[in-house]
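SEQUENCE-TO-STRUCTURE ENTRY
===========================

Subject: a protein chain together with a token-level encoding of how that chain folds.

Sequence line: the amino acid chain in single-letter code, read from start to end.

Question of interest: how does this chain fold, as expressed in backbone structure tokens?
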Amino acid sequence: MSKSEKVTKTSGSDRVNRSYLDKSRRREYTILIPDMLPIHFKLIMAIYKKYGYNMELLQTSTRNVIDEGLKNVHNDTCYPALLVVGQFMDALKSGKYDLDHTALLISQTGGGCRASNYIHLLRKALSETYPQIPVLSLNFSGLEKNASIDVTPSIALKLIYAVLYGDMLMLLYNQCKPYEVNKGETDRLLARWQHRLGKLFETRNRYMHTKSIYRAILKDFSAIERTKEKKPKVGIVGEIYVKYSPLANNHLNEFLLEEGCEPNVPGLLDFVLYCASDSVNDGLLYDKKDKDYFLFGIGYDILYKFQKQQIRIIKECSDFQPPHDFEHLRKCADKYMNQGVKMGEGWLITAEMAALAETGTKNIICTQPFGCLPNHIVAKGMSRRIKEAYPDANIVAIDYDPGATKVNQENRIKLMLANAVIE
């Protein structure tokens, strides 16, 4: 193809125009990506820049994003889908982009969550007004073969390291920012390391020297002058998009910092390990030990070794609290439910709540997006069980939907903080 190819597919009475990106012309396009994990996504953008993809992270969070989502998807659609589609449509209507040289990128999990179908909702929203806009998919499930972004073995390896370094930066940022003596120092250091890691990903293999890179990161963050003040630690769990995305949770991390708290947000690697372990569990539960069972088993073992290395180095080189060991999370889950409960974030949310309460983060916010039934069952539905096991656990479920106001959400969080446990 010498240009973006437009394909029309008909389903019932719906006509959906699809445009596919001619990857040989990718350098001519600006590829917009939704804001979920700002720290991690900036590293991912740096990786793809080397391969000719010019990406831009959308960080708009105005009411107009929600309104655009309501206009373009059914109001029974889950809140994350509404926000993702709304943020894209808001950007395209802003006048900032050359619409003949703009593409959109969205991820797909390939699991039972409706997130795998966002791409179809997005294409339908684009069909009438912006049929020339290509939509790319980032997935590891073999979906959208004609529209998937390049994920070569080299890129996939770098993406794994981006998750590791992103988790490290997010963890250290949240443990330094509430206590910094010199305001803004933590943000400046975070920006420096994001830039430095981006440059390392341009090299052949220097980004793989995790031991030395972890130690350098820990040394820099340990040098930040911090107060000895004790502040309440607040864990954030829930559906993956609303848990991490500032747009979806109304900048929850920033709000907690402003309220004098230390946010504790589980890393993205836990979700990656959760997905890999689910595939292994399926093989055991349904006696289906096929190729995927063995491949995901190998992948899980490798990723888990990466996590154990990170935990070990954090403990050896600093006084920062490391992330939870994933095998310990699995044991926490086993106290409350079977690991076959895997729709959405499944047993992982329950395990995260239990692990947080067990390790001193007794104040926990469950982010509950509209339309995510599995999340309500394994988060809000299990909070009573967690409180029975940890009587001083201070857990609140916050609903995020188009009709929920930021004021009401923050007032509920403030009520929870009024009874915050400090350890």
Notes: Confidence is low (pLDDT under 50) at residues 1-14. The CA atoms of residues 38 and 245 lie 8 Å apart.
